[in-house]
Structure formats: structure tokens, C-alpha cells
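lol forgot to send this yesterday, sorry. C-alpha cells for the thing we talked abt
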């Protein structure tokens, strides 16, 4: 009887742990409701005056929050079918930056700089129909191309970028668990920022399409998971990004959505999920949006645009050291071969050093004598 009770208690404990853990199975299932696929009708979010605020493919839950394009903050208080209704909470003071944002961002581990960014793709099949011919290419989606343009643009801004191209299919309840392993591996390389790059799954391309800083591009949604201990710091990071966008490329950041889920953002206080347009936008528009987004990141991270990190002076000294070592080895080898023995090589080296030193001393004495004669 005691054994049965022990087993039942263990099962109940496991169930409660999974159900309420931010990174457990429940969070994973909720996260996977962001289908980003045309197979599902999108959700629409309305304010109290029945005005449309946003449209998205992910499932909207009561308690989710939205910081809209105009920086007004809303909270979802009811959902009816595919319509969500939000109450106004207040307006965020997301103003153009006066100082570098890096001073108020969460501190990283000692020895890490702010110029290393890691990029990966949980939904590695996501594609853009007008350019890729389909919305899904398992293991090699068009989202990789957008990520690569994003990577190159960040590098041009002075960042070191780690772009991981691992696939995480199939798109099921375990996709974020598989990509979590990728995120953990990336964080071992010491990035200060972790970005999961997606695209949305709404059918209307005009929702994201915009002319920004003279370029035809897609806007970008920032998604923050609200089921992890880093939610506040990640939200603060997202606000800094939006502030930089408001100043440098107004319109590039469409909104910030705080969704029920984890999205692996419990791993670091500077993690963000971005949606670069939707599947009905062209990939060229998405690439343009990614490039513009990259151009606001130096202001966020305190990196001087176009200036790489300081050179490794230690490596220069190591190069000199090895040149000297190889030179000594080469000369030693030549002397051994020419004299026929190690002892002969040592004697030859001593003779050479003694002779050169004597010549140097004699040269110095001669110069001193000549100078004295000239002075007399």
C-alpha cells in the first residue's frame, strides 16, 4: 500500500511540475500555437472602441499584452473565437534616445562585450510564397536567407554574429524544445543577445508592408514571452529596440507583443523573438526589413556603427614569438648540418656571437675615436 501511495504521489508531483513550470510541457504546447501558417485563420485584436489594433497568426490568450505602433499599451481581457478584445492600460514613454541604451540594459557575464549576437530559427521551414514558391521548405526555409542578410548587415555595423542554420522540424509541440538545445549551445559562445528569427502567417501582406527610410520593406514585430523569470528584462530590451527604431528608422518596429509562452527567453535577459513580415510578403521586402532592423542595433547595444571590436594585440605578440622560435630552429638546423654535429653547431654559434660582438665593440670604439678627432 505504501509503495502505491509513493508512486501516486510521484506521478502527481510530476504532473504539477510539468503543468506549472514556465519551461515545461504546458509552455511548450502554448508556444506552438504560434502556427505562422495559412492553414489557420489569424487572430484580430480590437480596442474598446472596436478599432483594429493588430492581426497575427499566433493564438491570442487572455492576459496577453500589446504595445502598439503608437506606443499605447493594451491587455487582452477576453477572446471570442478569433477575435480578441483589449483594454487600454496606458502609454509608454518610448522616446528617442538621449544616451546609449546599453547603460540600462541587464549586465552580461564578466569579460563579454556587447558586440556578439547569436541568431537561430525555431521554425526553420518558414518561407515567403512570392519568392520561394511555397510557405514551407522543411530544413531550408526562406527565413534562412532573411537571417543571412540580417547577419551580414549586423556585421557591417561592427557586430560579431553567430548565425545557426540547424533545422528543428517537424513543427510540433517539441519544436521549441529542439531549438532550446540550439539556443543553449549558442549561449556557450558568449553572445550578449539571442534572437529567434521568424515570419508571421497572416494572409494580408499590406499589414507589414511599409516604406521605411526610403526603402520598401516589411515591418517587424517583437515578441516577448511572459512565462519566464526574464520577462521584465526582455521586455525592457524590446522597448529599447523600439525606441531606437522610432528614432533611426521610424516604422521598422511595428509593435511589441507579450505572449503566453516561454520561447526559450528564460535562458538570457537579452532574448527576443522577431517576426519579419508574413508569408505573403516577398523575401526581398523581408530582407530589406532585416537590414534596416540591423542598422538600429548599434544604438541599442552601444556599439559604434561599422567599427569592429578592438584587435587582439596578444595574437600579434604570439605571431612575433613564433617567428623568432622558427628562426632559431632554422638557424640551429643549418649549423648542425653544416658542421656535422651538435657540438660543432654550438661552437660555431659561439664563434659567430663572439666575432660579431667584437666587431660591434670595435665599431663603437672607432666611431668614438673619429668623433673625438673631429672635435679636436
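and heres what i got for the seq, position by position
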Amino acid at each position: 500500500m505504501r509503495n502505491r501511495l509513493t508512486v501516486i504521489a510521484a506521478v502527481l508531483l510530476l504532473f504539477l511540475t510539468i503543468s506549472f513550470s514556465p519551461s515545461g510541457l504546458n509552455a511548450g504546447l502554448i508556444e506552438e500555437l504560434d502556427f505562422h501558417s495559412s492553414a489557420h485563420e489569424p487572430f484580430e485584436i480590437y480596442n474598446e472602441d472596436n478599432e483594429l489594433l493588430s492581426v497575427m497568426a499566433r493564438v491570442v490568450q487572455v492576459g496577453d499584452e500589446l504595445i502598439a505602433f503608437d506606443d499605447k499599451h493594451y491587455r487582452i481581457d477576453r477572446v471570442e473565437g478569433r477575435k480578441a478584445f483589449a483594454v487600454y492600460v496606458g502609454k509608454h514613454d518610448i522616446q528617442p534616445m538621449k544616451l546609449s541604451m546599453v547603460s540600462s540594459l541587464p549586465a552580461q557575464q564578466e569579460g563579454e562585450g556587447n558586440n556578439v549576437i547569436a541568431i537561430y530559427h525555431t521554425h526553420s521551414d518558414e518561407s515567403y510564397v512570392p519568392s520561394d514558391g511555397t510557405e514551407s521548405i522543411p530544413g531550408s526555409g526562406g527565413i534562412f536567407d532573411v537571417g543571412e542578410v540580417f547577419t551580414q548587415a549586423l556585421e557591417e555595423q561592427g557586430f560579431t554574429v553567430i548565425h545557426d542554420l540547424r533545422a528543428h522540424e517537424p513543427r510540433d509541440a517539441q519544436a521549441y524544445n529542439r531549438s532550446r538545445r540550439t539556443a543553449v549551445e549558442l549561449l556557450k559562445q558568449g553572445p550578449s543577445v539571442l534572437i529567434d528569427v521568424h515570419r508571421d502567417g497572416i494572409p494580408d501582406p499590406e499589414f507589414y508592408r511599409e516604406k521605411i527610410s526610403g526603402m520598401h520593406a516589411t515591418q517587424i514585430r517583437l515578441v516577448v514571452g511572459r512565462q519566464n523569470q526574464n520577462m521584465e528584462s526582455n521586455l525592457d530590451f524590446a522597448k529599447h529596440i523600439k525606441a531606437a527604431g522610432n528614432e533611426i528608422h521610424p516604422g521598422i518596429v511595428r509593435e511589441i507583443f507579450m505572449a503566453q509562452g516561454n520561447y526559450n527567453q528564460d535562458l538570457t535577459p537579452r532574448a527576443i523573438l522577431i517576426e519579419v513580415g508574413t508569408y505573403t510578403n516577398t523575401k526581398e521586402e523581408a530582407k530589406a526589413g532585416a537590414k534596416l532592423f540591423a542598422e538600429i542595433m548599434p544604438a541599442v547595444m552601444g556599439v559604434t556603427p561599422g567599427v569592429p571590436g578592438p584587435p587582439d594585440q596578444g595574437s600579434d605578440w604570439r605571431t612575433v614569438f613564433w617567428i623568432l622560435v622558427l628562426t632559431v630552429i632554422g638557424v640551429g638546423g643549418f649549423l648542425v648540418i653544416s658542421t656535422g654535429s651538435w657540438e660543432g653547431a654550438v661552437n660555431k654559434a659561439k664563434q659567430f656571437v663572439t666575432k660579431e660582438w667584437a666587431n660591434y665593440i670595435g665599431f663603437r670604439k672607432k666611431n668614438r675615436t673619429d668623433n673625438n678627432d673631429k672635435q679636436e
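Residues 315-353 form one domain. anyway ping me if u want another try
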